[in-house]
Design goal:
alpha/beta; four-stranded mixed β-sheet; Aspartate Aminotransferase, domain 1; about 40% helix; binds pyridoxal-5'-phosphate
């Protein structure tokens, strides 16, 4: 260990408070400190290389230190780093808004920027709420979400969150929302169909009995991310969208995790030709470079706010860094690269490749479902697959497997007992081969060899 590492390690323990982290555990071990990145590799301050097997929390598209993206930022830096969207505009914010409207599901033509997925969700929730108010339709103030939903950590986003471990402590300070089950395609045959039907029936019943109270349904389309990489049965999202339309409920698609190619389509909604009323994007929007998010609204939603000032229909919401030019410039460059390199078109083939490699794990005694949609994968670890028993949370099986993967040279972060594999979309087959090799080794080492 170098003197530089020792210095940074002490400073880390003294000053940093990490997200979603029990700091007592963190400080009990040697911190892991990243210094630089190149392609799909990240390098720690001691010079060791690691594959970025979770795209730095599901953000990264083209890899790290990409010349075209770096250049977009430095070019913009030579003009202006930041100016506000309050009462004025800036060049990249305008151009990116046009581009987002072009590539998004039909009808989403208005772009409202923010700086994280959670703030994008807050905006969608507030827009949906005020939409009904502005339309003069009273009482439509309740939100429907899905069990195990995750939409970010600000209070509005937590109010439509449904992961007890993260959210229950805050319930007393949240607005109540209603939840329906998230259906899983991993159930076989009739069970899969039944799961889809159960969701649709629950939703139909809610809409029929309480539709006049419901402002919107918020959904992680096709893949529920933080809930454990759960993939919906085909056709379900489409039918959920139809139910919303039939019952006058707005549909908010939270594409923060699924957007920008991750599921094999530019947006997961595109897999089923779903056209939501509001759509939230973040994470991969800038290729994973800078914190920019956006909430896209249809002309219909926008028009409910478009009125003479005296009518008091203005959307009073904004953030200091809304429409940040550096972020918008790199987002534009990332989208251009995605087109030039046909990144989205490549995802399905890479997904199949990874799926075939990981099939070798299927017969292992502690590997349950291997869930996959595009380049979002989750491997469920089980104490006893034959008996269907789960590991106890105290076993920290996901954490231990991720730590072992790191020792073997790949970074990821688990979701409970689910090991996550979400590599940068630009990863080559050779890189995916190496990463899945590490992943499988880590699973076997921890679950069978007791590492
Ligand atoms: N929505 C979904 C579906 C997410 O997966 C996440 C983050 O993982 C968020 C919202 C929150 O995004 P952020 O962490 O940028 O606030």
């Amino acid at each position: 260990m170098t003197a530089n590492y020792e210095r940074l390690s002490a400073l880390n323990k003294n000053y940093l408070w990490h997200p979603f982290t029990q700091m007592k555990d963190y400080n009990a071990s040697d911190p892991f400190i990243i210094e630089r990145g190149e392609g799909v590799m990240l390098y720690d301050v001691n010079g060791r290389a690691y594959y970025d097997g979770f795209s730095s929390v599901w953000l990264n598209v083209h890899g790290h230190n990409v010349p075209e993206l770096n250049e977009a930022i430095t070019d913009q830096l030579g003009r202006v780093a930041h100016s506000t969207l309050l009462g004025m505009a800036n060049v990249p914010a305008i151009e990116l808004a046009e581009k987002l409207a072009e590539i998004s599901p039909r009808g989403l033509n208005k772009v409202f920027y923010s700086d994280s997925g959670a703030t994008g969700v807050e905006i969608a929730i507030k827009m949906a709420f005020q939409y009904w108010h502005n339309k003069g339709i009273p009482g439509k103030t309740t939100f429907v979400t899905m069990n195990q939903a995750y939409h970010g950590d600000t209070l509005g986003a937590v109010s439509v969150g449904a992961i007890p471990l993260y959210h229950d402590i805050f319930r007393p300070m949240l607005f109540p929302s209603l939840a329906v089950p998230y259906p899983s395609a991993s159930l076989i045959g009739e069970a899969e169909e039944a799961a889809g039907e159960a969701t649709l029936n629950a939703l139909r019943e809610l809409f029929e009995t309480r539709g006049n109270e419901i402002a919107a349904l918020i959904v992680e389309p096709i893949v529920q991310g933080a809930g454990g990489i759960i993939v919906m049965p085909p056709g379900c999202l489409r039918r959920m969208a139809e139910l919303c339309k039939e019952h006058g409920v707005l549909l908010i698609a939270d594409e923060v995790a699924t957007g920008f190619g991750r599921t094999g389509s530019m947006f997961a909604c595109g897999l089923e030709a779903v056209e939501p009323d509001l759509m939230v994007v973040g994470k991969g929007l800038t290729g994973g470079y800078l914190p920019v998010a956006a909430t896209l609204a249809t002309d219909e939603v926008y028009s409910a706010f478009y009125a003479d000032y005296e009518e008091q229909k203005t959307f009073f919401h904004g953030h200091s860094f809304t429409g940040n030019p550096l972020g918008c410039a790199v987002a534009l460059a990332s989208l251009k690269l995605m087109e030039e390199r046909r990144i989205v078109e490549g995802v399905d083939g890479k997904s199949r490749f990874v799926g075939e490699k990981l099939a070798a794990l299927a017969d292992r005694p502690h590997v349950g479902e291997i869930r996959r949609q595009g380049l979002m994968l989750g491997i469920e670890l089980m104490r006893d697959k034959a008996m269907g028993t789960a590991y106890n949370w105290e076993d920290r099986i996901g954490v231990r497997t991720s730590m072992r993967a790191r020792e073997l040279g790949m970074l990821t972060r688990p979701l409970g007992n689910v090991v996550v594999f979400i590599p940068p979309l630009a990863s080559t087959e050779a890189e995916l081969d190496a990463m899945t090799g590490i992943l499988m080794q880590a699973v076997v080492d921890v679950t069978e060899e007791g590492f």
